Amino acid sequence: MDYRINRDIKFQPLDLVDAGRLADECPDRWWNQPLCLVNDCVVRLGVFEGEFHWHKHDLEDEFFFVLEGSLLLDLENRTVELAPRQGLLVPRGTLHRTRAPVRTVVLMIEAATVVPAGD
């Protein structure tokens, strides 16, 4: 599957962040867009359908929060299903992958140093 992972920060301080419009206009099956920086972290918007590869982040935690759809977070020993308005913190060094059986919109918060595709 092709992933579209952007690196540019879309919004500056005091800009209106219209995440709903961005998600609605996204034609991609797997898309990740940094929205803004908050201190040393980046807030990302993802639109997912399908599965991402197994990976980990050696130095950074990663928080997933579902806005729409359903996100499966596969860990080494279990799978956690997130419904809208549910989130999960994946600690640094944890092998994981995300899967979305239907089009899913997710907010992610992580250190700005993270490599989105994993280390």
- What is the CATH top level name? Mainly Beta
Share in β-strands: over 45%
What is the SS-derived class? mainly beta
At CATH level 2, the architecture is Sandwich
Task: Please tell me how large the radius of gyration is.
Answer: 13 Å
Overall residue-averaged pLDDT value: 94
Roughly how many Å apart are the termini? 19 Å
- Residue share in helices? under 10%
Describe the 3D structure:
With 119 residues, this protein is mainly β. The protein has one domain: Jelly Rolls (Sandwich). Helix content is 6%, strand content 49%. The protein contains one helix and eight strands, in the order E-H-E-E-E-E-E-E-E. Strands 1, 2, 3, 4, 5, 6, 7 and 8 form an eight-stranded mixed β-sheet that branches. It is globular and about 40 Å long.
